[in-house]
Design a protein that fits this description.
By secondary structure, this protein is of the alpha/beta class. The chain is about 35% helix and about 25% strand. The structure holds 1,4-dihydronicotinamide adenine dinucleotide (NAI) and 2-oxo-3-(phosphonooxy)propanoic acid (HPV). Keywords: Amino-acid biosynthesis, NAD, Oxidoreductase, Serine biosynthesis.
């Protein structure tokens, strides 16, 4: 039974879903990094929010880890590169807390416009400070949205409902989508110049780091309101403090900080400054949504191989997963066999899919074959890491599709090119079993078995007898024997499955047979 660790506070619904689905689950929150490193080898899955930060060291220690699930949107706390390199799927729940976060941004906007937290605190302090608080209306004001994705669009909808004018900067926002949302797409500087209030809804990436900079704050209208419910590093906090102190920025409301938890901060205590402790996603509804969703996605992956909302591997639906499985197994075996036959760096890999398999999503099949292929050199590679590792090694990957099958329902042709030669294997599924139907152009019908010997020999009489003699003397029993040749009197290809591991010296003895050119031992 797969085992998952929930390492951050999460709705109990996650635990329930895991257990109902047959996944063992431990909930241990508040672990130090060292404590997590000590226990993580026991787990197949790790479920987190934003507190736990699975970095390269934690992921390296996680020998059995297959999936990290983020019950929420932002995955900046997860080292996705390390996870990918180690074949760990990283998934998030991209919609479950979006409405809640948009509502928090609107709440922060009103709080800033009317100074509700300070007014509340002083009223409860017995001051009745009625004349100290004069707010501004949001009606007819211009809201500048930086990042108009899921949450930005939800904020836009709500702001339009408040009869605000909405302008948005987002390099990936199309004109059509802007029209549909009812927002005006503008350039970044124009947004800073025109907005009465600015709200941020981008991830923290190179292009957005410090996007609310000192220089851009200088472009804003006097009296602007700044709201950040996205990520801390988007705002230059020092410049914001100066602009608040100078009275240029009317009010600022931050839910997120460059360093969290922010327990002491130069902005704390600044007049017209509002802070919440990263509460954007913290509602009953959102937490239930993301907990259920992350547990379902992780359980699906661990139990069936279905992948949804992964950031580092293609999606596989629950319906597709069982249909893909035999082809993924076939591709893995074809890749692993070929990987043991080539002894030079791979330059290019070409996949041709024929027949019924072309109706399926072939990305996972390609990824499985690549993983198999790279396994001889990189034992830890898997379907998640293989495409990235292949790309990093400059391996060119091509895929093509032919609608009709040649001689079986579905065929997969894998052609691997090295500096010296091209290796071609064609496989199929026959009665649910993976089979090799062609090897280096030679037709055959061979099953994959745990121990195989591959021989390339001159097509001359006497070879089979000699080979049988060598195997017999070494007490190696032949299970199946497949032999074929390209042309009479030229080269032949022979694939022998044997019972049990091949003795160390056997390849040498076979190589000594007159007709033999190449011998490789293949283990599956
Ligand atoms: N405070 C909280 O508790 C929560 C914070 N968040 C954060 O909110 C942010 C947005 O989330 P979603 O809307 O779901 O993400 P999303 O991916 O749907 O939208 C992000 C948008 O930012 C845009 N973008 C990327 N680079 C940009 C740039 N250089 N300038 C302007 N726009 C750029 C993208 O095109 C995209 O449309 C994320 O960082 C997420 O972590 C999400 C949920 C809760
Ligand atoms: O979903 C997100 O991106 C969030 O920032 C929410 O963070 P949290 O799960 O509340 O720690």
């Amino acid at each position: 039974m797969p085992k998952v660790l929930i390492a951050d506070k999460m709705s109990a619904a996650a635990t329930q879903v895991f257990r109902q689905r047959g996944v063992d689950v431990d909930v241990i929150t508040g672990l130090s990094k060292e404590e997590l490193i000590n226990i993580i080898p026991d787990y197949d899955g790790l479920a987190v929010r934003s507190t736990t930060r699975p970095d390269a060291e934690i992921i390296a220690a996680a020998k059995n880890l297959k999936v990290i699930g983020r019950a929420g949107i932002g995955v900046d706390n997860v080292d996705i590169k390390s996870a990918t390199d180690r074949g760990v799927v990283v998934m998030n729940t991209p919609f479950g807390n979006a409405i809640t976060t948009a509502e928090h941004a609107i709440a922060m906007l009103f709080s800033a416009a009317r100074q509700i937290p300070a007014a509340s605190a002083r009223t409860q302090n017995g001051e009745w400070p009625k004349s100290d608080f004069k707010g501004v209306e949001l009606f007819n004001k211009t809201l500048g949205i930086i990042g108009c994705g899921n949450i930005g669009a939800l904020v836009a909808e709500r702001a339009l409902g408040l009869k605000m004018k909405v302008i948005a900067f987002d390099p990936y926002l199309t004109k059509e989508r802007a029209v549909k949302l009812g927002v005006e797409k503008v350039e970044l500087d124009a947004l800073f110049q025109r907005a009465d209030a600015i709200t941020l809804h981008t991830p923290l990436v190179e292009g957005t780091k410090g996007i609310v900079s000192r220089e851009r704050l200088g472009m804003t209208k006097k009296g602007v309101i700044i709201v950040n419910c996205a990520r801390g590093g988007l705002v230059d906090e020092e410049a914001l403090k100066d602009a608040l102190d100078a009275g240029h920025v009317r009010a600022a409301a931050l839910d997120v900080f460059a360093v969290e938890p922010a327990k002491a901060h130069p902005l704390f205590g600044t007049p017209n400054f509002i802070a919440t402790p990263h509460l954007g996603a913290s509602t009953l509804e959102a937490q239930e949504n993301v907990a259920v969703q992350v547990a379902e996605q992780m359980a699906d992956y661990l139990l069936t191989g279905a992948v949804s909302n992964a950031l580092n591997t293609p999606s596989i639906s629950a319906e597709e997963a069982p249909r893909l499985k035999p082809f993924v197994d076939l591709a893995d075996k074809m890749g692993r066999m070929t990987g043991q036959l080539i002894h030079d760096p791979i330059k290019a890999v070409e996949f041709t899919y024929k027949g019924a398999v072309t109706d399926l999503n072939t990305n996972p099949i390609t990824a499985a074959a690549l993983a198999g292929l790279l396994k001889a050199a990189m034992p830890d590679v898997n379907m998640v890491s293989a495409p990235v590792l292949a790309k990093e090694r400059g391996i060119e990957i091509k895929e093509s599709y032919v609608d009709e099958a040649e001689r079986a329902e579905s065929l997969i042709r894998l052609a691997v090119e090295t500096a010296k030669r091209k290796f071609v294997v064609v496989g199929t599924i026959y009665r649910g079993e993976p089979r090799i139907v062609r090897l280096f152009g030679v037709p055959m019908d061979a099953a994959f078995s745990p121990n195989m010997i591959y021989v390339r020999n001159a097509d001359k009489p006497g070879f089979i007898g000699e080979l049988g003699g060598v195997l017999g003397r070494n007490k190696v029993n032949i299970a199946t024997f497949s032999l074929g040749r390209m042309k009479k009197d030229e080269e032949a290809v022979c694939l022998v499955s044997v019972d049990g591991p091949v003795p160390a010296n056997l390849a040498e003895e076979i190589r000594a047979i007159d007709q033999v050119k190449i011998v490789d031992v293949v283990e599956m």
